[in-house]
């Protein structure tokens, strides 16, 4: 049995080097299985993330004009003496992780500042904008899972309410104000800071350009109609985004490439388990022949043990896992589980399924290159990704404990070969 275990450990590395092409052929031969590519993509598109969000912001506005001579509203000291005179609320629907639509409502109070002649008006606005998640388009998840950037653009309709009666309408005279209806183009950018899977902080900067402005922002005189396309108001604000829905994560932060690769690994695991079941009869026959003292080809049995087909006692499997003979290795600065680690994970799954009372520590490491805090996060992500595959393979999450150990300084930092050995996730059975 010791020889079998030793050969298991040696050949595990060889199994990890199986080519992706060979597995791809197996997937084609098992199109009717649960984890085929079509069902995986369908699941990603329809079930994996929330698509609705609601955001609210407050801040200040900066009207650029038009103004009547002697009137203005801009301040030169917004940083030291901020004035809250802008509010907006937005409902957003994402069609995928990158593109969506946003319906917005806003309010701005425009009044005199400094040495301007006194005035006080209100601007109400609405808009429908396209939204692009720049951080998803550019794959920022490769270096951050906290910060995001959105660009938004679209048409709008605004209403400037002036306290000076300029309209000939009896309705507006009765209400003691005038209203200017304006068509607009709205553009802006939003910085997102993820707080949790259902909450984010946001900082927004928006430009609202009017194309049919009849009144100056002060409301005292009519705008120059020959130049009325220059009505512009800037706004900047900060607020909160609430992510709506029952899924674990929103499209803003969903890592699609990670999920595709994870589900692809699950598909390969499913195929590997099928192959193990297919050869079980041969293993049983070999055991019977061995028990009758009949000479058999022991190399075949050993190879089956290496592939996970030969039974290894629970005590032996536990010792191999806890002695760190079973590892998942990673490329430099990467957290994606490679297809070569399928046999390792399958070995763990078999043990956990045969021992339902056992609990597993999933412990992530990184090498010493780079920033220590970054490597700590990297080791956490590596452990999370491995645990995610184990959970999706049918093991209850309550049985797993994820531990981020950060840098492993047990090997020479200068050795490239040695560093490869510590970019890993190890396991401990409790």
TrEMBL record:
<protein>
    <recommendedName>
        <fullName>OmpA-like domain-containing protein</fullName>
    </recommendedName>
</protein>
<dbReference type="Pfam" id="PF00691">
    <property type="entry name" value="OmpA"/>
</dbReference>
<dbReference type="InterPro" id="IPR006665">
    <property type="entry name" value="OmpA-like"/>
</dbReference>
<dbReference type="InterPro" id="IPR036737">
    <property type="entry name" value="OmpA-like_sf"/>
</dbReference>
<dbReference type="InterPro" id="IPR050330">
    <property type="entry name" value="Bact_OuterMem_StrucFunc"/>
</dbReference>
<keyword id="KW-0175">Coiled coil</keyword>
<feature type="coiled-coil region">
    <location>
        <begin position="262"/>
        <end position="289"/>
    </location>
</feature>
<dbReference type="InterPro" id="IPR006664">
    <property type="entry name" value="OMP_bac"/>
</dbReference>
<feature type="domain" description="OmpA-like">
    <location>
        <begin position="317"/>
        <end position="430"/>
    </location>
</feature>
<keyword id="KW-0472">Membrane</keyword>
<dbReference type="GO" id="GO:0009279">
    <property type="term" value="C:cell outer membrane"/>
</dbReference>
<keyword id="KW-0998">Cell outer membrane</keyword>
